[in-house]
Amino acid sequence: MEINEFVKTLEREGGLLADIAEQAGPDALVPTCPQWRITDLLRHTGSVHRWAASYVAEGRLDPAPFPDAPELTGAELFAWFREGHADLVRTLQEAPAEVQCWTFLPTAPPSPLAFWARRQAHETTVHRMDAEAALGVEYAPLDPGFAEDGVDELLTGFHARPRSRVRTPEPRVLRVRAADTGAVWTVHLSPEPARTVWGDADPADCTLTAEAGWLYTALWNRLPLAGPAVTGDLALARLWSETAGI
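RE: above sequence
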């Protein structure tokens, strides 16, 4: 996907998140994020938006902690969230293509600007799902190409990092197959961080086969990783559900 497509998705998803969160109300529980209420969801995502925008806007080359969210409630909190989201969108739209700043995944896109546009589009989409869970409505559908990209970021980026807890005592293989886009990933599990490659050359112990949108939602633990989409050794699916939280 192009940078402007990610930014458009970020803009749309952030607006949806805010609208749905307002419908749910600030005190609504977020079942996909235990211990959180809508207030916590907005504070977290609003802080992430400001954190991401600061790298691009200031060309920061070193990592920094998330900024603290203000102790706002009600209408003031929603306005604060919308302000930070709009600023992030504007920052990404106006940044020069050659901007240099810090990024943090081992399989980053070709430029820092592409990295942050992609990362924040997926960050905001996943948290839009959290707002929908709090409201008790079905998740809005995902574009298959965007969902495929999010699965790729999760498998080849987040779970290639040393901090990933998705590990097995002995080598095992998890296959992830997007039935609608044709994308296939082979995830090699071991005591080391997962190693994911494209394609299906190696035999798999467990296979996940579904539309990219379902894979995105389930691998981000916003739906149970279970049912007819999961075949083979179901223990690997349970392992993912128990250890893959970001």
